[in-house]
Design goal:
The protein is an alpha/beta fold and 284 residues long. Helices cover 30% and strands 18% of the residues. Strand 4 and strand 5 form a beta hairpin.
């Protein structure tokens, strides 16, 4: 066996540092996944609570120029007004089950004077999308709307160009159509009267906990595997080389001839026939 001095060699120190970095990285990634799990549980609790509450008037939950309280997301609100069909906004790149499509957002002019952005649903399209003139029209006249409150999107994807966008922002759309809008928007749950051609309704959120717990365990397992691998290789280096015969390098017994050299028929002074068992007649 060898001493442990090999552990202070340059190669083993570098190996040890790599293992330390890997172990820390996998621990951090595991903690990150467990943090995402807690966030998802908290969001799911908000959705479950708000789905169980009776619908509220839009002015009790939303306000002009005010961001949506995250605790109110997915709460049902009601509003009455007239759809501003000419100011329809197309939300591009909305796929469902592998099919391309768009969401159709139509401002609803309410009695308060502010417009409520209503995502009326999803429409299947080809890869080129659709224009506001190509989507089914909403009900005309006064419409009673019930919808789920959603938080505004942010970033470059919310910019509105030529009547279309990639995500919904009341600030960006309000500026594009030149109207005062409620903060946030709603995803349509129902409208009265019903349209001639309804769109696919909004998809409700998945309230499962997702794969975060198992992902977190997986990252921690990888970290433990790296530590175990280092320890095993260090132990293998410490105990030294061995062969498959248990440490013996020479044959412990000579062959029955007393010689390490194989015996041939010629050495025995016999012909090849002499090695053949005679038959009952005594002849080969």
């Amino acid at each position: 066996m060898r001493s442990l001095r090999f552990l202070v060699s340059r190669r083993w120190i570098a190996f040890f540092l790599v293992v330390v970095v890997l172990a820390y990285a996998t621990w951090w990634l595991g903690e990150w996944q467990f943090g995402r799990l807690e966030d998802r549980k908290r969001d799911n609790a908000v959705v479950e609570r708000n789905e169980a509450v009776a619908p509220a008037a839009v002015d009790d939950v939303l306000a002009v120029g005010r961001a949506v309280d995250p605790e109110d997301e997915w709460r049902l609100v009601t509003a009455t007004g007239t759809y501003l069909t000419d100011e329809t906004i197309i939300v591009r790149y909305r796929t469902r089950e592998g099919s391309s499509g768009v969401d159709v957002v139509v401002p609803l002019q309410t009695d308060s004077g502010a417009a409520l952005l209503v995502d009326r649903g999803w429409l299947a399209t080809d890869d080129g999308g659709a224009t506001p003139d190509e989507v089914p029209a909403p009900p005309p006249g006064t419409v009673a709307v019930t919808g789920y409150v959603r938080v505004d999107a942010t970033g470059d994807s919310a910019e509105v160009t030529d009547g279309s966008t990639r995500s919904i922002s009341s600030e960006q759309i309000g500026s594009a159509i030149g109207r005062e809008t409620y903060g946030g928007f709603v995803e349509l749950a129902s409208e009265d009267p019903s349209p001639d051609t309804p769109l696919e309704p909004a998809e409700l959120p998945d309230l499962s906990n997702g794969p975060h717990f198992f992902y977190g365990l997986q990252w921690w397992f990888f970290g433990l595997l790296a530590v175990f691998g280092f320890c095993y290789l260090a132990y293998d280096e410490w105990r030294g080389p061995r062969n498959k015969s248990g440490g013996q390098t020479d044959r412990s017994m000579p062959p029955s001839t007393g010689s390490m050299t194989p015996v041939t028929y010629e050495d025995a002074g016999e012909s090849t026939n002499a090695a053949v068992r005679p038959n009952s007649s005594g002849s080969p």
